[in-house]
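Continued from yesterday's entry.
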Amino acid sequence: MTDIDQSSKGDSERGFFRIDDELRMNWIKLDPDILRSPTDRDDELRDLNVELHNLISTAFGDSAVLGEAMGLLNRKIELLTGNGDGPNLDLKSVAVNLSGSGLAFACDEPLHPEELIEITMLLLPANTIVRVQARVISASPYPDDDWAYWVRVKYEPRQETATEQIVQHVSLRQMQNLAARRDSASGVDGGTEES
């Protein structure tokens, strides 16, 4: 489902589309007194990742196979070079509601309003690792038995590179969902058409 996130109500701020999705992700609590500042190398790697993500998304629009292959190669390079914590990256498949301004996700541990966390997400099909700092807005009981809590967070300011990657992912997933609905409505089976 796609909705507009209206959490940004200022005149100069825009709302973001949001999607229900399932992401591979994890999170850690941050001590606000000991925030990590990115190095120049980290900044350059993030910038390169954004540019590569743009190209992979474009390629995916032209050819799903080519886009997925490029995404897998990108992820393989990250694992081989140790970028993104390499093989130690422990990501779980989690139900989320994702937008460019925040995230709601299922978890088993209670979080409290105003807690600061760092979220690591794997965005598919580009296989891009995104890290973003966020502040907890609320936590409520999860409606199903799979998880204990549904946690809502808002991204901290000045993380434009990471949030742009998330916005691009949401847009790509929206296009995929619309294409799947269109194909389903027109009776297209697996993308093949009879002449």
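--- second protein ---
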Amino acid sequence: MIFFRKGRAMAEEAVDKGEHRLQQLEKQVRELRMTSLAGAVGVVVLCLFSLFRILSGDVPEEIRAKRFAVARENGKVGILLAIRENNPRFSLYDSDGDLRAVFELQGKGQPILSFLDKERHYRSVIGLSDEGNPGIAFWDNDYRARVNFKLAGGGEPALGLFGRDGETGTSAVLYLSDENGPILSMRDALGQDWSLP
């Protein structure tokens, strides 16, 4: 009987930890939404300001440059609009001049929104795959991939949770197949793969 109580207690503790982690992820997603919204509002305000200036007739019909930089009072770049590898890129810098957020098109035109820390390491990326499916990824303080949530090729949702070794170490991946229902794949610390069903 003691064995079952210990097992139940361990299961309840695992559920509590899972719920706590889920709440943390939900909080991060909410924060990313607010940051994305603030960036989008900034772009809209800039576009509306430019449109007003064009319609009022006090600017040329077209301005061409390889890049546009908006500097802060301290002279450091705050916003940079440029072409990188033949794709547009909108970069936001903090007051110290460190790159913190980038909205760009990559490869064949997939939009990507990236958030970076002070050391210019990616911490979160939101974007579309080659197939046009959305996804979001998070990296930990040691810059290892820890969470990946996306829609797979056919639009099926997939959630990947990764241990300290990133995608090559311990992991749990939940995939909801349209044909086979939910599939849970796990890899333990010894490299043993497990799958349900």
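Residues 2-55 form the longest helix (54 residues). The chain has a mean pLDDT of 82. Will compare against the first tomorrow.
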